């Protein structure tokens, strides 16, 4: 930490704004940071006390936590006594965070890229004002320190709570060390270079000191290592990095009492599983109790030694009959254009904490698919439901259904860099796949709020859902909460399964490589029988761990006894059982070799917007494939796409105005509302398509 110096006091910068006081209280206000050149700023006074902190997973409520703000670092724990003992739940560098406040609700939000922290002061307006004032001052102080001493930024890491003793000499260096790359990036990240991956691996060792003495040595060694970081990035081998440090050969204890895991994968099993599945799997991070909502580690030191790869799924989609597979395209007409000319900050800076579904975005930020087609991507791995419908054991059926629910997120892994088109009211999309044994139909049934409904049927299952999205931008990240319930029925057993969606978050919205994570708890129940239930945990990435995208689930009977367990990564595969005898239940299809040039699309996604001569006369004019802005973008015509997008949006505003003037409510064509306010298929689409009667029907002009 920097030594104390005589400094002059500089008041923190306040955010601009000429709106009225009442208006400011109702909206989010972005707190500006350091302006001008860095200089001597007096170290602000400490601030501490209780605040409410929203749990990291949705619908889990708020927790009372004790916070300490010191030298621009905000630390928190359950109680002040635990803070003094160094038992921290987390640390936030407010200087590197985007800060916004809402006076009316006494809310403070800090977006660190890795996490979005939602805080509240509920006791009094005075205490809220005190916290905001102190945070402003500490934020400017911290930014000034970073500007004057750039190496300070590398020396802080939110995992400083891993220090065995906060009062020892280790405090001379602020917190634990931090890698130059994002702590969540690992060897399976699509855009992580080999050098960055090597550095990341080196830092994984630094996070686990054996003792205060070892920790001090590690800190000192890291300071020397940091000075040579340029040579590391330029190609210095990992062995030379690790050669600087001396690590104990045996396992060592972490300060919380848990132990890091020794990786034991045989050469045979290593060759049979996905590359990043051969990483460490630490069971301590995946407790499925209600207390796991804050994602805190347990004392479980179980580990995975190796995993077998016996895929046992048969494609029963067509009842075993042979189906002639239509020839489909394998690439898009044009690669993805650059969006570097678009200033996202200018678009988003006035929308902190707001729903982005109503914010117009440039077409360069889109991908040539829309939300209705994204819903269709959720049934890419429908063979899991085919298998479930032929499985007699109800507990094993639940495993297949749960794995299908997890597989719906797989296609999003490479898609954080762009967004789908928003469907206009009345827009439809069909996907008829005899090769997979299903037919899919979707329709945009509501515009405000935006609601998309879909229905997919097969001889082996029926799948339906209606989804409303709430997208909120928090300064560096965008949080996506999907509201709605997903349903699946299996006709062979009369089962009716229901489950919720988890929260998604896109990080590095404004700069750096964007990446997406999904986190929360998914509960799956069979409403036709109470024989078993399932809970799947999407584990939130932790700033001090390289593990990301992990899931773990368990199937229990009516008495709560665990019958089956499964684990894996939502973008790679799911494994059932206990290592080393775990069996692969599902694995994601390989990506096209040039996916990075074509929006990160899977092969299934590439096929969704294809329009051939045989299909064209069968579709209603409202089908997404006829949408001109999306087609222009797919063909690489950016100017045409932007022009058509504006025209289509203007047409929608005109139709809405006519409905309002005539006091008429839009009525969806292929879906109807049930008694419980969910949208169900009217079961008329495929019948009308047979004749085809669409050519004789009266449809609105959408484009």
Automatic annotation (TrEMBL):
<dbReference type="GO" id="GO:0005829">
    <property type="term" value="C:cytosol"/>
</dbReference>
<comment type="function">
    <text>Phosphoinositide-binding protein which associates with both cell and endoplasmic reticulum (ER) membranes. Can bind to the ER membrane protein VAPA and recruit VAPA to plasma membrane sites, thus linking these intracellular compartments. The ORP3-VAPA complex stimulates RRAS signaling which in turn attenuates integrin beta-1 (ITGB1) activation at the cell surface. With VAPA, may regulate ER morphology. Has a role in regulation of the actin cytoskeleton, cell polarity and cell adhesion. Binds to phosphoinositides with preference for PI(3,4)P2 and PI(3,4,5)P3.</text>
</comment>
<dbReference type="GO" id="GO:0097038">
    <property type="term" value="C:perinuclear endoplasmic reticulum"/>
</dbReference>
<dbReference type="GO" id="GO:0120015">
    <property type="term" value="F:sterol transfer activity"/>
</dbReference>
<dbReference type="GO" id="GO:0006699">
    <property type="term" value="P:bile acid biosynthetic process"/>
</dbReference>
<keyword id="KW-0813">Transport</keyword>
<comment type="subunit">
    <text>Homodimer. Interacts with RRAS. Interacts (phosphorylated form) with VAPA. Interacts with OSBPL6.</text>
</comment>
<keyword id="KW-0256">Endoplasmic reticulum</keyword>
<protein>
    <recommendedName>
        <fullName>Oxysterol-binding protein</fullName>
    </recommendedName>
</protein>
<dbReference type="Pfam" id="PF01237">
    <property type="entry name" value="Oxysterol_BP"/>
</dbReference>
<keyword id="KW-0966">Cell projection</keyword>
<keyword id="KW-0539">Nucleus</keyword>
<dbReference type="GO" id="GO:0032433">
    <property type="term" value="C:filopodium tip"/>
</dbReference>
<keyword id="KW-0597">Phosphoprotein</keyword>
<feature type="domain" description="PH">
    <location>
        <begin position="44"/>
        <end position="140"/>
    </location>
</feature>
<keyword id="KW-0445">Lipid transport</keyword>
<keyword id="KW-0472">Membrane</keyword>
<dbReference type="InterPro" id="IPR011993">
    <property type="entry name" value="PH-like_dom_sf"/>
</dbReference>
<dbReference type="InterPro" id="IPR041680">
    <property type="entry name" value="PH_8"/>
</dbReference>
<dbReference type="InterPro" id="IPR018494">
    <property type="entry name" value="Oxysterol-bd_CS"/>
</dbReference>
<dbReference type="GO" id="GO:0005886">
    <property type="term" value="C:plasma membrane"/>
</dbReference>
<keyword id="KW-0446">Lipid-binding</keyword>
<dbReference type="InterPro" id="IPR000648">
    <property type="entry name" value="Oxysterol-bd"/>
</dbReference>
<dbReference type="InterPro" id="IPR037239">
    <property type="entry name" value="OSBP_sf"/>
</dbReference>
<keyword id="KW-1003">Cell membrane</keyword>
<comment type="similarity">
    <text>Belongs to the OSBP family.</text>
</comment>
<dbReference type="InterPro" id="IPR001849">
    <property type="entry name" value="PH_domain"/>
</dbReference>
<dbReference type="GO" id="GO:0015485">
    <property type="term" value="F:cholesterol binding"/>
</dbReference>
<feature type="region of interest" description="Disordered">
    <location>
        <begin position="1"/>
        <end position="22"/>
    </location>
</feature>
<keyword id="KW-0963">Cytoplasm</keyword>
<feature type="compositionally biased region" description="Low complexity">
    <location>
        <begin position="304"/>
        <end position="314"/>
    </location>
</feature>
<dbReference type="GO" id="GO:0005789">
    <property type="term" value="C:endoplasmic reticulum membrane"/>
</dbReference>
<dbReference type="GO" id="GO:0031965">
    <property type="term" value="C:nuclear membrane"/>
</dbReference>
<dbReference type="Pfam" id="PF15409">
    <property type="entry name" value="PH_8"/>
</dbReference>
<feature type="region of interest" description="Disordered">
    <location>
        <begin position="288"/>
        <end position="340"/>
    </location>
</feature>
